[in-house]
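Quick one: structure tokens for this chain, please?
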Amino acid sequence: MRGKSEFGEKLLNKDLYQTNAGRYAEKISNKDNIIIWGSGSASDALYQFFKEFHCLRGLKNYADNKKDLWGTKKNGYTILSPLEVAEKVKEEPVYIIIASMRFPEIRKQLILLGIEDSMIDTAGFTVANDYYTYKDETAYQIVKLHFDEFRQAYDSLADKRSKEVYLNILNSKISLDNKYLELISSPSDEQYFDQELLKLKTDEIFCDCGSYNGDTMEAFFQLTGGNCRKYIAIEADKDIYLELNQKVADRSYKNVTAHNIACWNKKTVLKFQSAKSAGHIADEGEIEVLADTLDHILKDEPVTMIKMDIEGAEPAALTGAGAVISRYKPVLCICIYHNLKDYYKIPLMMKELNPDYHLFVRNYTDMVAVETVCYAVPADRINLKLEEEVE
């Protein structure tokens, strides 16, 4: 790829999509007694990869921590309990591929069950997921086509850690190799409230776009001792919105306002696909939802923080929040992992909305490039310890 900048020098300059997909397939085709740990949607891409590359010979079982799944079948293979896996290991060598975003916890669990680390595969899920994500257009091709934009976004990041995280995620996708994700994750409980980056206040007006059932809200109130001027929760899925309201009532949270609406770049009605924690706007969506801009939803609310995890609708929602962001300059905590192009689109949009923002990128899932957040932080909200490192 063109460019003599640091970004161009450190970015992989070869499309390794086919090479590394084939290499991984060859590796697992030689394995016997394979167990896929995880039987949810995260395992589907891995199973499809097995079929496409003719690696099903060694697959013997699935395993899961959910009791109601033990003894049932997925794709014709019995789902084992953790104890059954441990007993199986005593009888013969097994090879366990973790097909879950809960990599660290499951890896620790397997080791406690007496399973050697060499028998645990933490690469397969990432290989399979990215293989199908970029089958029509590889990550290398996308980055090459938009190289200048990716470089501009990289250069706009305010600290060394952000640039390391950003570059390593791109390299992991170009190469289908999650070795680049080693040591770049931050603790998952710090997502959106990363105290390494920003100073959280007790009088925030916090706008939570994609509030789900209130998981972020719980974390926020724990950190602030239940104090805030206002917590504005926005959730498009009607059923989950009802769960959210129930949690507010059960916890007796104060100063919470909830909206059953989707954040977008205009007022309209959109097709929506309900999918538990990953409900999203989709042309093939089964239901319709009302959508509106944050500029209209928030009106004259002097918001101090905005968080977005809305399954790829972040660029549209940011466009619809332009007036609020320009006027109040809130801290922005925006997920960028739903679409590779968002890695440049969202940081550049933030800078355009407020050139004085300091931008940071952090990833909150170990060995998987998801839950990646771009922060836009005004100078007076940056953590004092970080100020010396900010470029």
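The two ends are 26 Å apart (CA to CA).
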